[in-house]
């Protein structure tokens, strides 16, 4: 049950981020839920591998390279999900930051981590 709540919270966060950002478009609610599912799957299975493989460059950049990995996850999601478009690296960065913050805030309100 916790996974479903987290996906729905991420979907709400993605919808909020797409509403406020000019370079990010999500067609409808169904697409928003699919975006949240794909982001969850990529962040669960692919992101840890990328983080491990890029440890040296992450150390050299004092952790800022993790933002590049987040951007890649968002851009990859946009390429996999039709109806979800991201028009560049800056909107992808802002999208990932907004989704992270809104998800964190909503999980605190809903209590999804309990």
UniProtKB/TrEMBL annotation:
Pfam families: Phage_holin_4_2. The chain crosses the membrane at residues 33-50, 57-76, 88-106. It comes from the Bacteria. Keywords: Membrane, Transmembrane, Transmembrane helix. InterPro entries: Phage_holin_4_2. This is Phage holin family protein. The lineage of its organism: Bacteria, Pseudomonadati, Bacteroidota, Chitinophagia, Chitinophagales.
